[in-house]
Design a protein that fits this description.
The chain is of the alpha+beta class. The protein contains 13 helices and 17 strands. The strands form 4 sheets. Strands 1, 2, 3, 4, 5, 6 and 7 form a 7-stranded mixed beta sheet that branches. It has a 6-stranded antiparallel beta barrel with strand order 10-11-14-13-12-15. Helix 2 packs parallel to helix 12 and helix 7 packs across helix 8.
Length: 419
């Protein structure tokens, strides 16, 4: 397996903003090359498990809301050759190299005068488009199908790993800002220094760089950096034991090193997936199509788009400014309670229950609100009328008749893992 993982996201270059505003999600098409760049020397004490890594990528990044295509080999050949000669590179260097090689190769084809002139043939006359595409594709070393993939280019992303380390303590592995699961774990259990040294830790540091392929008013294409996402994660497991790691219907029996690696990999890719979903063009949107009893609504998204039970959606209204521009205003939140199987029946809607805000009507938009999948809640209360005698506990100076109470609740959404 090559130590290089480059993925390109391809979608419709032009889509209707009005359609998106009314809840219809425009599917994006993802093309991937078999692998991306890992910084030389980044793997210390352990190597990335590519099959498991790609499994996580397909689950959290290449979600079912996207379509998939293979990027033509001629377009990524120069990138592979040049990045393979680098002894070191940061995300800025990778970004520049990607744009100089893959980006320029794509733009050379998309901005070809013949391609620009015939761009609309696919919509007006499929037969004429196929004839043109077959002829033009041969002249640039592609197939007609590969040329069609490029005609639909909209997004490019590049995952990268700067560090992948195995250690026997958190201080050796590195520190990272804990997500909700780590915070909950630290609250739910206390780990002593002696316990820590009996664990294996794996630490991953890296991210994803996103690009957009834009179309100017005169029909020219250009590529610009859209977003740079970084994420750190760690996993740990007690040494000398066999651990069971489960994901969906799969189960692995692993030693402590590999279990820590799998845990870190899943956490890292999942965080990148959450951040990716926050790109506005990728967020699922659905209009309320039915108002049901008990503050519930039917939404026009479901299994085909990768919706799961417990997914959170914000309810937004579209309002017009004095200048006639549309703006979105949040009016509440809702949570998916039933996922509709719309893979064959598009009218099999999902059901969402409103959590906050006033009751809404048909036409209000439910917009995906990505989150990590953990809930951590702390509630406080006050009790009176208690009678706990002072002689029950040696440290009490007087009877207890009232108290302040705290309740900690932790929940994890298993739906994305179990389906």
């Amino acid at each position: 397996m090559k130590q290089l993982l480059l993925c390109l996201v391809l979608s419709l270059a032009i889509f209707s903003p009005a359609t998106a505003q009314h809840g219809e999600y425009v599917r994006k098409s993802i093309s991937s090359v078999e692998s991306v760049w890992i910084k030389p020397g980044a793997e210390q004490g352990i190597r990335l498990d590519y099959p498991f890594f790609e499994n996580m990528m397909s689950s959290y990044i290449e979600m079912s809301r996207f379509d998939f295509n293979q990027l033509p080999e001629p377009l990524i050949k120069e990138f592979r050759e040049r990045v393979g000669q680098m002894s070191d590179a940061d995300e800025e260097t990778l970004a520049e190299l990607l744009q100089e090689t893959v980006g320029d190769a794509i733009l050379d084809i998309l901005n070809d005068p013949e391609v620009i002139q015939n761009r609309g043939l696919a919509l007006r006359d499929e037969s004429a488009w196929q004839t043109f595409a077959a002829t033009k594709a041969r002249s640039v070393g592609l197939t007609a199908e590969e040329l069609e993939v490029l005609m639909n280019s909209s997004y490019i992303y590049l995952p990268y790993i700067r560090s992948l380390r195995l250690a026997t303590s958190r201080s050796q592995a590195g520190t990272t800002t804990p997500d909700a699961s780590r915070l909950a774990s630290s609250l739910m259990r206390s780990t002593s220094e002696s316990e820590e040294t009996d664990n294996h830790y794996v630490y991953i540091e890296g991210g994803i760089i996103w690009y957009a392929v834009n179309v100017s008013p005169d029909g020219e294409f250009n590529i610009s950096q859209l977003l740079s996402i970084t994420a750190n994660a760690y996993g740990n497991a007690e040494r000398g034991k066999t651990h069971s790691f489960r994901f969906g219907n799969e189960r692995w029996e692993l030693d402590s090193r590999r279990y820590a690696l799998y845990e870190a990999t899943q956490t890292w890719v999942r965080q990148l997936g959450i951040d990716t979903q926050q790109i506005k063009d990728f967020q699922l949107r659905a209009s309320i199509v039915e108002v049901l009893p008990s503050h519930r609504y039917s939404l026009g998204v479901g299994r085909a788009e990768g919706v799961y039970v417990d997914d959170l959606y914000e309810l937004v209204e579209v309002r017009l400014t004095p200048d006639g521009d549309e703006t979105f205003h949040r009016v509440g939140f809702s949570r998916i309670t039933r996922v509709g199987d719309n893979t064959e029946d598009i009218y099999n809607y999902s059901t969402a229950r409103q959590l906050t805000g006033r009751r809404q009507g048909i036409g209000v938009i439910a917009r995906e609100y990505p989150r990590i999948g953990y809930d951590l809640r702390i509630t406080a209360g006050f009790s009176e009328g208690l009678r706990i005698p002072a002689d029950q506990f040696f440290w009490l100076e007087s009877d207890i008749t009232e108290s302040i109470n705290f309740d900690l609740s932790y929940a994890y959404n298993l739906a994305p893992i179990t389906g």
